[in-house]
Amino acid sequence: MADDEASDPRTGQRGDPQRRAIHAAAIAQFSERGFAATSMANIADAAGMSRPALYQYFRNKGDIYASAFVALFDDHVDRALQALDGDGSNGERLDGFLQRFEGDLWEQMAASEHSEEIMGAKTADTAEEIHQVVARLRRGLDAFLARAFPGRSQAARARRAEWAEVLALSPKGFKFDSPDVDVYRRRLTTLARGVAADIDA
Q: What is the DSSP string of 150-197?
């Protein structure tokens, strides 16, 4: 992944501490002010650097937005996949997977009154990059389900596909009534336990 990132000036050098500081500052400013009201000066001040220094890393506010949110999703995917590879029952690992990706992102977005504006600021390119990051999440989930419920038969493959689909789509429906974070997290836990019970049956 490092080679891909180094070749992409928008999302490159993910481990660079200065870029990570800019990402964190930008997300905090977008969350506090909204995308439209956030300026490059706001982001530079929050990152503890000058505007000219900020322009050495990013061309404009949209460039920072794209890089910051792709990196944010990438970090959440890393944590979710680590939860799947951790210790515990299938239910505990699936719950950790859902909490680290869906739950933590919902908590971060729910904390901002500008969340709809922030998410609406995505460009087609940014949406595609996030889609690719989420595809990595799905591959990790598929690998986990193959280990938890092995088998090459058509029936086994179909069951795994059904569980993956439910785990991917249900969290979207859980947001329909804009629940608070605790309610949303409880729904994720119930989903994880239900799928795990089916796997373990």
A: ---SHHHHHHHHHHHHHHHHHHHHHTTT---HHHHHHHHHHHHHHHHH
pLDDT (tens place) for every residue of the chain, 201 residues total: 333 433 344 444 556 899 999 999 999 999 999 999 999 999 999 999 999 999 999 999 999 999 999 999 999 999 999 999 999 999 999 999 999 999 999 999 888 999 889 988 888 889 999 999 999 999 999 999 999 999 999 999 999 999 999 999 999 999 999 999 999 999 999 999 999 999 999
Name the CATH code of domain 2-200 (choices 3.60.10.10, 1.10.357.10, 3.40.50.300, 3.30.413.10). 1.10.357.10
C-alpha to C-alpha distance for 55 and 59, rounded to whole angstroms: 6
Count of CB atoms situated within 10 Å of the CB of 133:
20
